[in-house]
Design goal:
0% helix, 11% strand, little secondary structure, single chain, two-stranded antiparallel sheet, 73 residues
Length: 73
């Protein structure tokens, strides 16, 4: 049976990213990824525009009537 586990090899040591497999010996296939640095999960605004936004109206209800929205037609 074929099972997949994620791990990182650093300086010859294996660090499991998921549950450690319950095995004493196994044959493995290693895939080398060119970039292993984690990508940021959220973008941040440029410092030139940070804090300059304004909220116009209610956050729940639209400022204009739904009949006036072109995208709802």
């Amino acid at each position: 049976m074929l099972q997949s586990y994620e791990a990182i090899i650093e300086n010859g040591q294996v660090r499991w990213l998921t549950d450690t497999p319950k095995i004493s010996k196994a044959r493995v296939i290693v895939t080398i990824l060119s970039d292993t640095t984690p990508q940021p999960s959220r973008r941040t605004p440029a410092s030139a525009i940070a804090g300059k936004g304004k909220t116009l109206g209610d956050l729940v209800c639209p400022m204009i009537e739904e009949q006036d929205w072109e995208c709802l037609k």
